[in-house]
Amino acid sequence: MTYSNDRELLLHQGDLRQIVRMFEVYCANPSHFHHVKKERLLSRAVFFIVGFFCVVFSVNQYKISMEGVESRECNDALADCDGIPFNDTLIPPFYNYLQDFTVTRRYDISLCLIPKVMSTIGTAALCYIDNPEAFKSANRTISNEMYAERFCERNEMKSYEMVKYNLKRNFENIIVVRDPFDRFISGFTEKCVKYVAEDLCHGCGRDLHCFIRKEYRRLKRISMLFPVYTLADTHFAPQTWFCDMKNTLKDSTLIRYSNSGMERVRMVDDIMKVFSKRKVAEEDMRAVQKELSKGKTIHSTAGSSLRQHYERLIREDSAIRRAIVRMYYYDFLLFGYSM
Predict the structure, then answer these.
(1) Which domain holds residue 292?
(2) SS3 of 221, please?
(3) Cβ(150)–Cβ(124) under 8 Å?
(4) pTM score of the predicted model
(5) Which one, of 238, 257, 250, 207, lies nearest residue 333 by Cα?
């Protein structure tokens, strides 16, 4: 089953008919040409007409090129896509989508912020060690921080170059990564199911098949054209699209995220090793360790009945699992997670 809006192109320019109407309104209004010399009027008219037809030509060329692409690619992530090489159905890695970091200048540590991968609590942890007294005086708690009201927003940077400029040369960059299946389920349960009334997921609501189809196509288009930053796109983009990983991964400390059990303990221990290396005060390390060891945060979906329902659905539906692999194949491959 397909959905009518699945075929819509990702194009920032306005609708072609709207452009035409704007052109007609402009030309029909004499006030636009009042007290303008004849020579200047002629040159402006020529410039405007040429520009208009360039826009029309670009829109048409875009549509033609996309029709050509669509004839050669897998348009439905849930389908078999017979006759199309498997590699051609994959979302490519290392697209330079978003670069967001939080830093502590006190200890020269930066943390790559990836949505649904400890970004909020990680921001709070670095904020705390940067200035514990200010954090505590503001009645903040690491495990209860809300991203929209975070205490250390000024410690965030929008590119790796900014991080390098603001920290010492031997700074430590941390990248926390998450099992792609786990991250997808967490994102879908929170953004598409829990907040279904807010319509954050391309009009699909709780329909998992609809959302996978649409998000897969959107990620395909984004990788070929230009970035689009809807809430759904940023939360479901591949992890390799963040923090300029093509250039930063090799020089970063990679830590695996986990919600519970011994894997959670191992994750916290790995973070503490970095803190210890950077000479973070023992008292502050213990405070962060205690908060991170709590497991579930205010944003967590772990253990909920809704999450368990979608975990079972994905586990039992091979088409859904294959689609998620197509979306995040290189996350699985580069970070060593089982497909």
Answers:
(1) 101-335
(2) helix
(3) yes
(4) 0.79
(5) 238
